[in-house]
Records
---
Amino acid sequence: MTAWVIARNTFGEAIRKKILNVFLILALGSVLISLTFTFLEFRQQVVILKSFGLGMVQFWGLFIAIIMGISLIPADIEQRTIYTILSKPVKRYEYVLGRFLGGAITLAVNVALMGAAFLVVFLLKVNTRALESLASLDFGAFWTSWVWSGEVPGLIGGIAMVYMKLLLLLAVAVCFSTFATVTVNFFLSSAVFIAGSISSVTEAMSKSPNTPIVLRWLYAAVHYLVPNFGNYDVQNPIIHPEVPAADLPLYMWKAVFYGLAYTIILLVVGVLVFERKEV
Amino acid sequence: MENAIEICDLTKSFHSVLTGEDVIAVDHLTLDIHRGEIFGFLGPNGAGKTTTIKMLLGLIFPTSGTASILGYPPGDIEVKRKISYLPESPYFYEHLSGYEVLDFYATLFGIPAAERKKKVDELLDLVGLSDNKHKRLRHYSKGMLQRIGLAQALINDPDLLFLDEPTSGLDPIAHLDIRDMILRLRDEGRTVFLSSHQLSDVEMVCDRVSILDRGKLMRVGSLKEMLAGKSVEIRAERVRDDVFEKIKAHSSDAFTVDGAIRVRVEQSFVNETVQMIMQTGGEITAVIPGKRTLEDIFIETVREGTVS
């Protein structure tokens, strides 16, 4: 209950933050720009639109997640707002959880808005084409366009995967913010994100006989400790649904559970550190 | 008398990364604060006042020693329901209005919605912010923020209030209002732990005071006793010269004005001086107990500490 009160307040605070709103506007603008890719062949336009749209949601979402995550707790400490909160009947874990939940809701709203803009642009594009095809009695083109409309659930899945990735990054940033300064946290969280995005590389390096043993251990440590952000890169099967792929929904569910488990671990670590933190 | 706060041998040291040394902020502090009193916690900047308050609130942890707040350890969730804190120059969530911020704090205490609304309105009225309750805090003046700070400190009807510089930055009227409010809190049976540099305020409202300097407790006691002077001024006429010379030998300050004498003697020498003057034909015109201000005591205590 207390965590929820803090979460609601965090959300109210975050949606009024100018910098986050700027990112959101830039994201919406970027998605709209994709409407101008008319110089390409139509099939290419759709492929580029899906790739670009999902990419933009992720790109601007990363900024929102990291900027918000690194400052959620330090901002309260720096501005001394935390004194009047922790002197009330608020347990420290409730505070950390509340700030994280508030951030997660903010992130969800932002991703939903960006995703909705992307889907609207996508449907506008393919349905305009469908109507034009129907008008010119080109049933083949109409059928293709109609099939493309059916890709919306897949795209929603893709957006959900982007959200899970950002949620995991938010958890990393909130966990680090319990002991690191804002600047240090920015670099730490970014480094973890990059290392976690090239998990297959670190895994390969940790197993390569050509890598010195110490570096192999280091790569292995990075591979096993850092969350694998690459799990959420499902754009290819979504953008090219015609290419046969493994059971995508099952894979996505597994990735969701993996992300939630990692998020819980990161929050537990953050809470344990924050319990002993002097504010 | 039952104590609201019991502090025993409380010490806090911080490790300096730059010098590699430990800096002692609070040094073996032992202190009791009685229930229902206004206790003045004084000291120059850097004396360790805020550090002590933060330890009592469970915001930071002591290096050694113990403290008990209303019978609970600092930071205990049960004691947090019964206490409140107004930090120095408080900051609140600026995106909220005066009403919303009090509602937020009331929600943290789990106060039901209907009661919350009534309580928040009452408090806004009490601190004179009813007309500005829907204004965002970012548009509040420093004085208004201080008033909101006091209102949030009263949201849970606390038994014990920690007020850190509550009158800082206030105009004279607001200053007076807050001072009256603190007195009213005592009349309602609450305990107030008041940390302030406004010695005149402390002198007017506190029952007991302590003076902290560089983490050490230099003085503690009843304000009345502290302010009571140890010397007495005696004014007399027709005092013989030889008697005046004798008195002068025991006096810290002695002079004549139009043939009358004015001498300042220690309390223990008052009776003897008066008798000496009267037995030799002199006439006592006034015996005035010396009175010191809290400022005198504060400066004297801190200087003594610096010298030692």
Note: Chain A has a mean pLDDT of 89.
---
Amino acid sequence: MAKKVGIEAAIAIAEAAALADVDVVSAYPITPQTHIVEHLAHLVADGILNAEFITVESEHTALSAALGASLTGARTFTSTSAQGLALMNEIVYITSSMRAPVVMALANRALSAPINIWNDHSDVMSVRDTGWISIFANNAQEAYDLTFMAFKIGEHPDVLLPVMINFDGFILTHVIEPVVLFGKEDVEGFLPPYDHPYKLDPDRPVTMGPVGLPEIYTEVKKQQDVAIRSSRSVIDAVFKEFAERFGRKYSAVETYAIDDAEVVLVTQGSVTDAACFVVDEMRKRGKKWGVVEIRLWRPFPFDDVGSALTSGKIKCVVVLDRAISFGGPAGIVMSEVRSALYHVPNRPIVIGVTSGLGGRDIMFEDYVRMFELGEEALRTGKEPEMVTIIGVRE
Amino acid sequence: MIEIRFHGRGGQGAVTSAEILAQAAIMDGKYAQAFPSFGAERRGAPVQAFTRISNEPIRIRIGVYHPDVIVVLDSTLIQSENVFFGLKEGGLAVINSKESPRELKERLGFKGRIITVDATKIALEELGVPITNIAILGALCRGRPDLAKMESLEYFIAERFPHLKEKEIRSFRRAYEEVSE
């Protein structure tokens, strides 16, 4: 029976992996690890979860072992964060290229230096182009639901790609809050058994991951791109089935109070709820502001972003980035939003802000400032190329 | 929404106090969140933990800057840092101290509501160690009975400390009784 409990988000994610009855958990168990794999280790040790739990000496090996396990046909889970993801990087590419549907919970944290273990989106942005399906959760319930759904999405025979569930480090991972946990019987039939059509099997020997000469490499990469773009229909179908069965709705792009909004803030992750709170408060003072959240980061939902941001009365879009593209084209998310709107006639003004780096709290006034920058841009008609960092001491 | 900020030293269990309070409030049917201040925690260093309790879903995830209640697990913190920072007008301070609320108010020049309990003495007598996180919850429960039901708090105290549950619940109840207002 589903029950609502107060539980740490990290533990809820471990419970989601256990609910999916994972066969293999491979993880580096020390910092920057979260409680996710600690709880899974408990579940395995206590005999509650029948899985192989592999503790390895580095994140590079953690994902290597997960990749190998996944290719034998085992349902595989791993988790990491920040520097751990950076150390995995080589295998991050290889996992998606070898079409292994590993599920990874990524506790989003800053990259060093200076050494900083706190929340921002530097880590996920560093693997933007690695070919993983990448989805953001805003709270512990979403982290739980999406981790469970990630297996169904990635393992779908039309997809066969790894899935990364992003959830903000500390401000979500370490927070105890209410979550409705499923019992096994509640989800009966939702997640089919994992059956990789080309798995490593001693009775049908194949070679995986060999050299791809210039004669074949381009075709492999094109296939990979087609695969992740096509995964969108499966993602939508899984979200729809989940909503029909369990009542909680998820979309590639979520919107809040945008019907009559002139200025909207584009967010990702747990700041979305806070931004919605600010919108509610400021609407009492007559401000017509709204929020658009890009939940699905890869494959990027160009059409959904485009139609959300050109709907109603939207005249200015402020994009909140939680990481910096040093010397690059403004914000990382902002660039994608501008691309999505490039061909749209009478597109809204798009400006970028960066905030909440390395664990700095984004305060109520900071959100207000972001919206006000949008109003300013509307008044002056100026659309600055560069992002404004909110709350930086200069 | 009620915001509570716990001040302790690493090893005293302030994070556990915050978490048990949130779990109990959720069990009572409310919305709640609890989280640590995420500093570079080490034994003895000042740490903070936060709990928010509300009848509505809680949508913010920043530190508590304007608490309705502060809970101080270690009286030496009063000298070393401003535990009262941002405490709302009419807010409550729950302090582990041998001193009476009146003595503390005079000494600190603080005008608001203070309740005290000698949680260190209770913890030493009941547990044999100066870990005050459960005793201070007893005092908090006395000062703000609206936050969570005593039986819900005791349920999670027992769950968190299966081998020490009788002793911990005894220190929780003693602190509730021995509060000075």
Note: The longest strand of chain B covers residues 46-54.
---
Amino acid sequence: MDYIIKVSELSFKYDSVYVLKNISFDIKVGDYVGLVGYNGSGKSTLIKVILGLLKPYTGSIILFGKPQEKFNSWNKIGYMPQNISLLNPVFPATVEEVISLGLLSAKKFPKIISNEDKQIIDETLDYLKISDLKKQLIGNLSGGQQQKVFLARALITKPELLILDEPSNALDSTSREQFYSILDELNKKNKTSIILITHDIGQIGKYANKLMYLEQSILFYGSFLDFCNSDKMSKLFGPDSQHIICHQHG
Amino acid sequence: MNFITIFQYSFIQRAIITGIFVALLCSTLGLFLVLRRLSLIGDGLAHISFGGVALGLFLGVFPIYIAIPTVIIGALIILVLMDKIKIYGDAAIGIIASVGIAAGVILASISHGFNLDLLSYLFGNILAISIGEMYLSIALSIVVLLVISLFYYDLFSITFNEEYAKVAGVRVRVINTMLVVLTAITVVLSIRVVGIMLISAFIVLPPVIALQLAKGFKSAIIVSAITSVITVILGILVSFILNIPAGAMIVIANFIFLLLAIGYKKIASK
């Protein structure tokens, strides 16, 4: 199977206002897609519709060869939501407990965290170099540390598709580089497909092989280089952007 | 009076055994409710139980048997109002709670004979628990605690983040329905222990104490459970010795523990 996601003629509206209109695209195994667009352009909504958190108004979504309504292999998808800042600061969960929630998608009733699972949690913490945070309360961590914990939770099932909604927001520049290089390694070594929502178009161009520009509809979907070579870049990001961004990565 | 002899009274034994089971139940379930900002659902369902108890007394049936289905139906209506009609949770709880109270008041006024009985449910009387009520409380507590432990990770997941739980394949609607049904059963069981007026405190206080001290989610459940069991036993013993209502004493014991926990947290964080 080549396609991980195949979306056809998808639209979504809140009451009578269209947020997504006539969206069609597909994502193949190993694709690394940067999803960009202004605030309110529908990026997070598109992700939520794909994940079944919102119901589409029209259109169809195929996930791993199955219609989305019948899809139940959620362990194949690692998701890191945007609203980490909405986390209840007094929620009494340790980092280890939060990451263990990522394992639920691979479990059947009754769901139990085994010693083997605990070892996998340790390995994931180690991989992201946050083993020292294991017993800390999630609410006591900095924004950047929390981002890493939620990345660990998304990675714990070794998903075939990672969906990350503005993941590098709270990271300083060093952590951001480290974060992107981890994603790059997963994509290149493990063929993990990635959809990454970001405003950081300069950074994503270094790693993503595809770029999707969304503004209610898809204004561009293709390779980053094609985007640079088209006139859409300067139309969407201003006349200097082509020189600054594309020259940097071209 | 010799302290040990207190435990030789069978009504004290029944009170303590029932109190421990109901305390474990309220404190465990309460943690999920408090963290989901549903603390007041206990209060709302208790108000509905007032209508159920009044109906039971009106019909001449053991009130708990009528209160359990009444409160479960009320809880499900609250869920429907929130999910389908999109009414805010606190407003939905308020609406159904006041309907429950109103129904109880109407039933009480049209049959003049049971007002005293109704008052005993309003304030509870754990020292008057019968053997049958004790066995019922134990059986239902074990069932509810078993369900909670079987669905522990699902409950933990939706409590932490409902949206993420959905993506992790948790059947959020089923688990939410289960949570309110379990809460409904718990509330009715607690009526005899602390009374309709004070149930909310029984559900909310031990988890809030635990939140001051816990080092993790499992640790919060354990601290909440231990606190509630200690305060129930203390409350019962003190109320017996001083001849004051047990339900109110349990709540006061919890409140003192909360002040101590807040004080400890302040000192420990310095």
Note: The mean pLDDT of chain A is 87.
---
Amino acid sequence: MSGPIHAAIERKLAEALAPEHLEVLNQSSMHSVPKGSETHFKVVIVSPLFDGEPLVARHRRVNALLAEELRGGVHALSIEALTSAQWRARGGAVMSSPPCLGGSKSG
Amino acid sequence: MTDDAQKFISHLVANNRVMLFMKGNKMFPQCGFSAVVVEILKRHGVAFETFNVLQDAAVREGIKAFSSWPTIPQLYINGEFIGGCDIVREMDHSGELEAKLAAATTGASA
């Protein structure tokens, strides 16, 4: 079951970016935080709005939409922001996230 | 952001062609995302400088404002903001990173 932050991330991205594909993954369980935490997320989003935009600009769009969450409890947000063509070329594959190395405890 | 933190960050970015703001250091990254960027830079064999934001709260918050970017790590090449772990990985795959690093380390402006 997804928590309230998870649901808010999905809703905000879906409303603003007209995604062709959207996956929001709560990866908090890969890190040293309590069970059920909503601290580490990964977003895979495919949107026609990204056509012709550099990666930094795409990430800035996503970060801006989720500014409230990032100021709050979310402190890791991995983003794959793709155009339709890139998503098809990749055959729908998602990159894996790296393992935690303990730093979230100190921050 | 304090002026001191802003000046300090500007100085680091201006004086290091490849500058990584990260959690931990090259030897002991304290975050998986920071570790990925360190590994990629090491694989390219370029000299790079790092700053451990866990040791300085003002820089940790300051770099977010400086770059208008909410997360760590953050990579700068030749004074240009490149992005975080995801972007560095993608640019590594596409070959763009190698081109930027080559331009920066041979003295040409990217």
Note: The mean pLDDT of chain A is 90.
